[in-house]
Amino acid sequence: MPIVGAWAHRDVRAAFSSCLLDDRLGVMAIHEILTYPDPALREVAQHVGDAQSEEVRQLVQDLADTMYNAPGVGLAAPQIGVFLRVAVTDTRWREEDGVRDLQVWINPEISRREGEVVFEEGCLSVPGIYEDIRRAAAITLSWSDLEGNRHEADFEGFQAVALQHEFDHLDGRLFIDLLPPIKQKLLKKRLQKKKRLSMKAD
Ligand code: NI
User: Fold this and answer.
1) What stretches of the chain show up as alpha helix (H) in DSSP?
2) pTM reported for the whole predicted model
3) In the structure, what pLDDT confidence band is assigned to residue 5 with cuts at 50, 70 and 90?
């Protein structure tokens, strides 16, 4: 039985208190989020060699700032034009209590996918589109943290879905690619037209 849940379009506004990493970095930068059909979103991101590098630390800070500002529940590096296998999520954050739970995923690898679940998904790179998407209901994941330590854990439900969505970005895949072909074709045509019109207006 599929579970249908809400995705990124909660009506929340980012109340900017300092992000988890601010005290360590002190630099806050909100980046432009690339949108479909930007070809950069189709790039396959590179493996991170040194998770402890200053470059990766700054990237994580930028991703977190940009995600909370949007606001969204996840953001992957290619969405801000950086082609490294890094993503951040916060699937628990609510504006009301302001408590943030930033999760950092470096070189994530899914080793098990089980079951099936349907969630309504959206994406900061495909604004205004929300569609039911079928994904694995449970996954086993390994990843590195900012200290370079490797972890492995199981995830299910909304978190498993959010992670699969974000890590697809690292392989140049978008959630709309998972729609039935006819629906996909119509939607992509509509999005391309919308982008052309907005570029003309600029
Ligand atoms: Ni996305």
Assistant:
1) 22-25, 54-69, 157-170, 181-201
2) 0.85
3) very low
User: Which fold would CATH assign to domain 19-201?
Assistant: Peptide Deformylase (3.90.45)
Dihedral through CA 81, CA 76, CA 165, CA 192, nearest 10? -20
Where in the chain are the domains?
Answer: 19-201
- CA–CA gap between residue 189 and residue 191 (Å, rounded): 5
pLDDT in tens, 75-104: 999 999 999 999 999 988 766 677 889 999
Q: What is the pLDDT of residue 95?
A: 61
Q: What's the gap in Å between 124 CA and the centre of ligand 1? A: 6
What is the distance in A from the centroid of ligand 1 to the CA of 122? 7
Q: Residues 163, 90, 165, CA angle at the centre, nearest 5°?
A: 20
